[in-house]
Amino acid sequence: MSPNNEKLQELIRSLRDQKLTVGFAESCTGGALSAFLTEQPGVSDIFLGSVVSYSNEAKVDLLGVRRDTLMQEGAVSETVARQMAHGVRRQLKTDWSVAITGIAGPTGGTPSKPVGTVCIAIAGPGFEDSRKELFSGDRKSIQMASVDYAVAWLKEVLDKK
Q1: In the chain, which ranges are E strands?
Q2: What are phi and psi of 53, to 5 degrees?
């Protein structure tokens, strides 16, 4: 399963047309969203970078995620995703940011957060939102579904601005 290239091209055009920059904070996708974007030539005008914060310590140290939030809600929560999005936006000084945290499996799931649970957040000028989704399939499928979802959702948000 590979990400939706057509949606990505639409997102790149939208960012360029609006002269906006973006950065990512990725956990369960391990940089897949960043890799997908940087496969496209010439995106340095819109993409400023990413932080792959796989561990809780990296989330705290690099993105400013609050320890108490991690302790109370766990790394896979909409609150953590929002804090990751704000942290990477602040660190990279981007207009927009996307954060993804979740459980790609095949292990690590719980009854309340099964494998495939993914929280995605977007932050931008006057905008902040997060969503919790449940994707199915193997590890790679869950990661790619997360990337596709993030690309499509950011494009949708930018279209409304």
Answers
A1: 22-26, 47-52, 96-102, 117-124, 127-134
A2: -110, 80
